[in-house]
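User: Hi! I'm working on a homework problem where we have to compare a predicted structure to a textbook description. Could you give me the structure for the chain below?
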Amino acid sequence: KQWYQRRVRGTDGAVRLFAELAGVAAAKTELVKMVSALAKTTRFRYFDHHVQLLETVYRVLPLIFRRLTKPKIKPHINSFLDGLKYGLKSYNNLLRAASVECLQSFSLLLGPNILRGRIEMTDPDMLLYVQHTFPETVGS
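Assistant: Happy to help. Predicted structure tokens:
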């Protein structure tokens, strides 16, 4: 666990490893505890390749959430919304596409109206942006 928390800040390989381990039944309990550490990585934007790290996180996050099951990961979704907003507004097309796909998977997982409420509670400005740009993900 400590190794992961140190390494995840700078490498997308650790994020991919996290996704692979999420499919291992024996590791799921520990991984659920570490989802908050994964969420923290989306706030680190001080290094050159942070965009690639965020892209990787948002590409594999739907897979991680499906593998760890809805009830266990639902409490952690809000902690990813700030990074998603950053990704949705990014000038990097790959990051933006990964963020859109992740937001759409959150919508399928929670339902559009619940996702809308979570976004509204966390960041009302993000809700306005998402409603205007991706209305199908947050319902009406």
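For your comparison, note the following. The mean pLDDT is 84. Residues 1 and 30 are 8 Å apart (CA to CA). Good luck with the assignment!
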